[in-house]
């Protein structure tokens, strides 16, 4: 399309550059994972293997995209923080989040069998994604506090709820017992009724969520003549902390301080106006056509590595077509699809209210922009 008479198509793309000095966060979240976890019989309230699968996918994302230097995840969600000065895809939100969610999802499917050898993946999971721009390090700190509080609260509630169910209480009764309860009440309930010390007996991966940091290590290599040379080796470190938004945790991680800055004070609460901004989503105009175009990222090398026939590989095209058919089956608001080579366009019904017309639409991200998907 570049330098062709169709170049004008680019004018349909959304202008969504996240300007400097905003810090870019991408959050992905399992779509209807309540159903997915039931279908695949995840252990309640936490399934260690399912969490480990999420963590492995996050590691793969960090490995693939060097500008991501920190990730934090729990349950069916993950947040990825890019270094402040990133120029990845000219800082265009739609490109960045669609690439990350697409790659994450395909790794999830790829690694499923190794993680769950006894369970078939019964249907294709999908994840939503969005970009959050943080105007300062203080806003990023608030964001982390907000997500980890959500992890703490959800996990404590779910732990109580499933203990009550296991003890024979019907669901509505368990819900009633927990209604309006405070953190302290729930700790007490666990201790008094089930002899569970929440902090001591529940693994930190469930209570605190998982962080990964990109760190750089100096290593010494020896040349053939025996002389030593210093090299930088990138690696990831998984860490657990009760308070990832604390100065104590953050300021001790040199790589985070270098790429994002220091936390200057501890926070006890996230400002409600910040939470509002984290939840804000732009909506597309009602009664307009929405077109979502997906486009393979680096598919030239993907097709080389997988030895696609040249110039057209019928099987590869059939695979694209059957994926498009699955998308049409899943999202009833899509009324038309057209594909060629490694791209597909999906047209949504004018009256569609899919995802309330939020610009982020599940696995394929933002409409009207040339998405670069790594996999489908
Ligand atoms: P949307 O994100 O709005 O599409 O809904 P959702 O169904 O994905 O729910 P949400 O993201 O709010 O919460 C995640 C849900 O995933 C939880 O409520 C659980 O139902 C499920 N889930 C995530 N991890 C586990 C797990 O380890 N075990 C079990 N049993 N369920 C899990
Ligand atoms: Mg979800």
Q: Can you describe this structure?
A:
By secondary structure, the protein is an alpha+beta fold. Helix content is 40%, strand content 19%. It contains 13 helices and 9 strands. It has helices at residues 33-39, 48-64, 93-115, 137-166, 171-178, 183-194, 198-201, 204-208, 247-250, 254-260, 272-279, 299-305, 314-330; strands at 23-30, 68-74, 77-82, 127-134, 210-222, 228-239, 290-295, 334-340, 343-348. The strands form 2 sheets. A 6-stranded antiparallel sheet has the order 4-1-3-2-5-6, sandwiched between helices. Strands 7-9-8 form a 3-stranded antiparallel sheet, covered by helices on one side. Helix 2 (48-64) packs across helix 3, helix 4 crosses helix 5 and helix 4 (137-166) packs parallel to helix 6 (183-194). The chain starts with 22 loop residues before the first strand and ends in a 28-residue tail after the last strand. Mean pLDDT is 90; it is low at 360-376.
């Amino acid at each position: 399309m570049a330098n062709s008479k169709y170049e004008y198509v680019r004018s349909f793309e959304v202008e969504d550059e996240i300007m400097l000095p905003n810090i870019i966060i991408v959050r992905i979240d399992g779509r209807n994972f309540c159903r997915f976890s039931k279908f695949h019989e995840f252990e309640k309230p936490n399934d260690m293997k399912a969490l480990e699968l999420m963590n492995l996918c996050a590691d793969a994302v960090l490995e693939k995209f060097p500008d991501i230097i920190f990730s934090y995840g729990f349950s069916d969600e993950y947040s990825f923080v890019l270094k402040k000065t990133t120029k990845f895809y000219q800082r265009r939100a739609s490109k960045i989040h669609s690439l990350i969610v697409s790659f994450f999802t395909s790794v999830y499917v790829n690694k499923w069998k190794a993680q769950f050898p006894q369970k078939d993946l019964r249907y294709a999971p999908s994840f939503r994604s969005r970009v959050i721009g943080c105007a300062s390090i203080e806003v990023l700190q608030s964001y982390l506090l907000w997500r980890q509080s959500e992890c703490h609260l959800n996990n404590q509630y779910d732990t109580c709820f499933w203990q009550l169910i296991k003890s024979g209480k019907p669901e509505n009764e368990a819900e009633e017992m927990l209604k309006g309860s405070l953190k302290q009440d729930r700790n007490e309930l666990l201790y008094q009724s089930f002899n569970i010390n929440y902090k001591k007996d529940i693994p930190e991966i469930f209570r605190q969520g998982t962080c990964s940091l990109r760190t750089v290590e100096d290593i010494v290599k020896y040349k053939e003549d025996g002389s030593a040379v210093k090299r930088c080796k990138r690696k990831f470190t998984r860490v657990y902390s009760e308070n990832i938004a604390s100065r104590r945790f953050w300021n001790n991680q040199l790589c985070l301080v270098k790429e994002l800055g220091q936390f200057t004070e501890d926070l006890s609460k996230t400002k409600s106006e910040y939470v509002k901004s984290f939840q804000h989503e732009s909506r597309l105009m009602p009664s307009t056509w929405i077109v979502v175009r997906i486009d393979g990222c680096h598919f030239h090398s993907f097709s080389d590595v997988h030895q696609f026939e040249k110039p057209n590989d019928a099987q590869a095209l059939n695979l694209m077509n059957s994926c498009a058919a699955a998308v049409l089956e899943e999202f009833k608001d899509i009324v038309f699809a057209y594909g060629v080579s490694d791209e597909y366009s999906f047209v949504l019904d004018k009256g569609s209210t899919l995802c309330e017309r939020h610009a982020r639409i599940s696995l394929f991200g933002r409409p009207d922009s040339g998405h670069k998907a790594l996999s489908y």
